[in-house]
Amino acid sequence: MPLEQKEFIPGLAGIPAAESSVSFIDGQVGILEYRGHRIEVLAERADYEEIAWLLLHGNLPTQAELDGFRARLAEYRRLPSELVDVLRALPVDGHPMDALQVALAAAGMFQPRFDVIHDEEARNEASLRAIAVTGPLIATAERLRRGQDYLESDPNLTTAENFLYQLNGEKPDPQSAKILDVALVLHADHTMNASTFAMRVVAATETDPYTAFSAAVGALKGPLHGGANERVLRQLESIGSADNVLGWLDKALAEKSKIMGFGHRVYKTKDPRATMIEGLTRELFAKQGSTPVIDTALALEKAVVERLGEKGIYPNVDFFSGIVYSKLGIPTDVFTPIFALARVAGYAAHWREQMANNRLYRPGQIFIGSHGAEFLPIGERG
User: Fold this and answer.
1) DSSP state, residue 161
2) Among 73, 90, 113, 255, which is disulfide-ready with 132 (CB 3.0 to 4.6 Å)?
3) What is the pLDDT of residues 308-336, one digit of tens each?
């Protein structure tokens, strides 16, 4: 007797895949929380290291805990020379996300072997090392493709400060470091998104965490996920100026083209992260001077919301993040690796949850093929 046919849900939309206490979204009213804390409060009052601790441990750190956490992150940022050689061997015209995916997987080969399946403290140690190494891997890959060499991290700098320092060779100004830090906070986790789910599926096989995080980076690269911020900036550049927005939008809507940076699978109002990033964008451009891209972005946001807002189409976090990174002098194809730099803390928190009560993912399928096919000898096929 055949099993009862179940309903097919494309993309597993709305299907619970895990129980988690890491983050929470209410897309109808635009709420995002990390461990019960509203993202607006965290972005304003905490830095990325505090958020990483919060995601990993479930509570905000004491000063002593935070100081120790920062010290260990600084210690683990140094890359082995052999790992730098791996990055040096990669094609200079390859995408930085590909470099990061390769490098994260390779980084696991240079780390101590932990029993991360049964030992909670080992999971904590592995998580810490992965968070620490991600920024230096991204910055070093970018420096090498510019023809520059590896720059040692500065143990006195925060994650955001050190990333900009290793990327550019000079300590960043306080505003640039603060803006990047807030961007990292806003991107640190987002419930069961595509890359987090990919990471959990791979982690459930009980492979090492670096392989699981590398798989997450592969999912994050896609333009329907983290790669969208690159396409937003290219879209704005193709529009050219604020004066061209209405004509461009009319054409895009008539052709049913995707408007990058708008709409979200979860949010039916403006993404709260987009609101925070927009504030950073205005602050940065007010101090460092405006450019056509920000004027075009604001004009496009106004036009899209006027025409599509009633359908729940509002800016998402990708719409403004690329504009901010560009103003900070970061190359367009490094935008998504910065997303990964932030999100690795979330990956680590979800990975720890998965390992604490692991079960291999094995979803079913709805078979739509045929049965009883006849095998023909090769001479009779055709």
Assistant:
1) H
2) 73
3) 988 888 888 888 888 889 888 899 999 99
| Cα–Cα nearest to 181, from 157, 217, 155 | 157
Q: What angle do CA 75, 78, 84 make, to 5 degrees?
A: 165
371 is catalytic: no
Q: Can you tell me the distance from the alpha carbon of 166 to that of 185, in angstroms, rounded to the nearest whole number? A: 20
- What are the tens digits of pLDDT across the range 354-373? 999 999 999 999 999 999 99
Q: Find how far residue 103's CA is from the centre of its chain.
A: 16
CATH annotation of 228-327: 1.10.230.10
Please compute the mean of the pLDDT values over residues 50-58 and round it to a whole number: 98
DSSP summary character for residue 260: T
Q: Which tens digits make up the pLDDT trace of 99-141?
A: 999 999 999 999 888 788 888 899 999 999 999 999 999 999 9
Whether residue 118 lies in the annotated active site: no
37-38 sheet: strands from edge to edge: 23-26, 31-34, 37-38
* DSSP 8-state class, residue 298: H
Q: Which of 190, 253, 257, 260 is nearest to 230 (CA)?
A: 260
Catalytic residue among 264, 295, 333, 371: 264
Question: What mean pLDDT is reported for the chain?
Answer: 93
Contact predicate 236/293, CB 8 Å: yes
The CATH superfamily of 36-222+334-356 is Citrate Synthase, domain 1 (1.10.580.10)
What gap in Å lies between CA 129 and CA 94, rounded to an integer?
25
Q: Give which of 154, 184, 200, 172 is closest to 54, Cα–Cα.
A: 184
- For the chain, report the end-to-end CA distance as a whole number of angstroms: 35
| Residue of 317, 290, 318 whose CA lies nearest to 232 | 318
- Supply the DSSP string of 269-291, one letter for each residue: S--HHHHHHHHHHHHHHHHH---
CB 102 within 8 A of CB 90: yes
- pLDDT, one tens digit per residue, over 289-299 is 878 888 999 99
Beta-strand ranges (E) seen in the chain are 23-26, 31-34, 37-38
Catalytic one among 318, 333, 350, 371? 318
- CB-based burial of residue 89 (10 Å sphere; 0-12 exposed, 13-18 middle, 19+ buried)? exposed
Q: Where are the domains of the chain?
A: 36-222+334-356, 228-327
